Amino acid sequence: MIKVFISHSHQDEKFVNQLLVRLNKDGIMTLANEREVTKGDRITNAINSTDYFIVVLSKRSINSKWVSFELSATILNEISIQDNIILPVLIDDCEIPLSLKDRIFADFRFSFEEGYQKFRGALIPKPTRQFHEMLN
Protein backbone atom coordinates (compact mmCIF):
# COMPACT_ATOMS: atom_id res chain seq x y z
CA MET A 1 0.00 0.00 0.00
CA ILE A 2 1.24 3.46 -0.91
CA LYS A 3 1.52 5.91 1.99
CA VAL A 4 1.80 9.69 1.51
CA PHE A 5 2.36 12.71 3.70
CA ILE A 6 0.63 15.93 2.60
CA SER A 7 2.31 19.18 3.62
CA HIS A 8 0.01 22.20 3.33
CA SER A 9 -1.22 25.39 4.86
CA HIS A 10 -4.26 24.90 7.08
CA GLN A 11 -5.87 27.65 5.02
CA ASP A 12 -5.94 25.17 2.11
CA GLU A 13 -7.95 22.57 4.04
CA LYS A 14 -10.83 22.54 1.53
CA PHE A 15 -8.55 21.38 -1.29
CA VAL A 16 -6.60 19.02 0.98
CA ASN A 17 -9.79 17.36 2.24
CA GLN A 18 -10.93 16.79 -1.35
CA LEU A 19 -7.52 15.28 -2.17
CA LEU A 20 -7.59 13.10 0.96
CA VAL A 21 -10.99 11.67 0.10
CA ARG A 22 -9.87 10.83 -3.43
CA LEU A 23 -6.55 9.29 -2.37
CA ASN A 24 -8.21 7.20 0.35
CA LYS A 25 -10.84 6.05 -2.17
CA ASP A 26 -7.95 4.87 -4.39
CA GLY A 27 -6.48 2.88 -1.49
CA ILE A 28 -3.67 5.28 -0.64
CA MET A 29 -2.92 5.83 3.04
CA THR A 30 -2.53 9.50 3.94
CA LEU A 31 -1.05 11.63 6.69
CA ALA A 32 -1.99 15.27 6.36
CA ASN A 33 -1.72 16.93 9.75
CA GLU A 34 -0.47 16.62 13.28
CA ARG A 35 -3.72 14.93 14.40
CA GLU A 36 -2.93 11.99 12.12
CA VAL A 37 0.61 11.56 13.41
CA THR A 38 0.50 9.03 16.22
CA LYS A 39 1.27 10.37 19.67
CA GLY A 40 4.98 10.37 20.32
CA ASP A 41 5.91 10.47 16.63
CA ARG A 42 7.77 13.49 15.50
CA ILE A 43 6.75 15.05 12.22
CA THR A 44 10.05 14.05 10.56
CA ASN A 45 9.50 10.43 11.61
CA ALA A 46 6.03 10.54 10.08
CA ILE A 47 7.40 11.98 6.83
CA ASN A 48 10.18 9.39 6.71
CA SER A 49 7.67 6.55 7.13
CA THR A 50 5.83 7.44 3.91
CA ASP A 51 6.55 6.65 0.27
CA TYR A 52 5.85 10.15 -1.03
CA PHE A 53 5.82 13.70 0.30
CA ILE A 54 3.13 15.82 -1.35
CA VAL A 55 3.57 19.55 -0.94
CA VAL A 56 0.53 21.68 -1.75
CA LEU A 57 1.76 24.93 -3.28
CA SER A 58 -0.39 28.00 -2.81
CA LYS A 59 0.06 31.65 -1.90
CA ARG A 60 -0.60 30.59 1.68
CA SER A 61 1.68 27.56 1.90
CA ILE A 62 4.79 29.17 0.43
CA ASN A 63 4.75 31.56 3.41
CA SER A 64 4.17 28.83 6.00
CA LYS A 65 7.09 28.09 8.33
CA TRP A 66 5.82 24.54 8.92
CA VAL A 67 5.56 23.77 5.21
CA SER A 68 9.10 25.13 4.74
CA PHE A 69 10.38 23.01 7.62
CA GLU A 70 8.70 19.85 6.31
CA LEU A 71 9.96 20.48 2.78
CA SER A 72 13.53 21.10 3.95
CA ALA A 73 13.54 17.92 6.03
CA THR A 74 12.25 15.93 3.07
CA ILE A 75 14.81 17.37 0.65
CA LEU A 76 17.58 16.25 3.03
CA ASN A 77 15.97 12.82 3.22
CA GLU A 78 15.80 12.60 -0.59
CA ILE A 79 19.52 13.29 -0.78
CA SER A 80 20.33 10.60 1.79
CA ILE A 81 18.17 7.90 0.19
CA GLN A 82 18.91 9.04 -3.38
CA ASP A 83 15.30 8.84 -4.46
CA ASN A 84 12.76 11.40 -5.69
CA ILE A 85 9.87 11.37 -3.27
CA ILE A 86 8.58 14.96 -3.37
CA LEU A 87 5.48 15.54 -5.48
CA PRO A 88 4.56 19.24 -5.75
CA VAL A 89 0.87 20.07 -6.26
CA LEU A 90 0.01 23.56 -7.52
CA ILE A 91 -3.43 24.86 -6.52
CA ASP A 92 -3.12 28.56 -7.32
CA ASP A 93 -0.71 31.00 -8.93
CA CYS A 94 2.22 31.48 -6.58
CA GLU A 95 5.99 31.71 -6.51
CA ILE A 96 7.41 28.17 -6.77
CA PRO A 97 10.15 27.68 -4.14
CA LEU A 98 13.62 27.53 -5.67
CA SER A 99 14.15 23.99 -4.36
CA LEU A 100 11.14 22.81 -6.44
CA LYS A 101 11.57 24.82 -9.66
CA ASP A 102 13.21 21.95 -11.55
CA ARG A 103 10.48 19.43 -10.67
CA ILE A 104 7.40 18.43 -12.55
CA PHE A 105 4.31 19.36 -10.58
CA ALA A 106 0.65 18.41 -10.74
CA ASP A 107 -1.41 21.41 -11.78
CA PHE A 108 -4.79 21.57 -10.04
CA ARG A 109 -5.35 25.28 -10.74
CA PHE A 110 -7.95 24.80 -13.46
CA SER A 111 -9.47 21.37 -12.84
CA PHE A 112 -9.30 19.01 -9.89
CA GLU A 113 -10.09 16.02 -12.11
CA GLU A 114 -7.42 16.72 -14.73
CA GLY A 115 -4.84 17.53 -12.08
CA TYR A 116 -5.69 14.40 -10.13
CA GLN A 117 -5.45 12.07 -13.13
CA LYS A 118 -1.93 13.28 -13.95
CA PHE A 119 -0.94 13.30 -10.30
CA ARG A 120 -2.29 9.81 -9.59
CA GLY A 121 -0.10 8.37 -12.34
CA ALA A 122 3.00 9.49 -10.44
CA LEU A 123 2.05 7.48 -7.35
CA ILE A 124 3.54 4.09 -8.05
CA PRO A 125 4.15 1.45 -5.40
CA LYS A 126 7.72 1.30 -4.19
CA PRO A 127 9.46 -0.26 -1.21
CA THR A 128 9.14 1.72 1.98
CA ARG A 129 12.16 3.72 2.97
CA GLN A 130 12.86 1.35 5.87
CA PHE A 131 13.13 -1.55 3.40
CA HIS A 132 15.25 0.58 1.06
CA GLU A 133 17.58 1.46 3.91
CA MET A 134 17.92 -2.21 4.89
CA LEU A 135 19.13 -2.99 1.36
CA ASN A 136 21.89 -0.38 1.51
TrEMBL record:
<protein>
    <submittedName>
        <fullName>Toll/interleukin-1 receptor domain-containing protein</fullName>
    </submittedName>
</protein>
<keyword id="KW-0675">Receptor</keyword>
<dbReference type="Pfam" id="PF13676">
    <property type="entry name" value="TIR_2"/>
</dbReference>
<dbReference type="InterPro" id="IPR035897">
    <property type="entry name" value="Toll_tir_struct_dom_sf"/>
</dbReference>
<dbReference type="InterPro" id="IPR000157">
    <property type="entry name" value="TIR_dom"/>
</dbReference>
<feature type="domain" description="TIR">
    <location>
        <begin position="1"/>
        <end position="136"/>
    </location>
</feature>
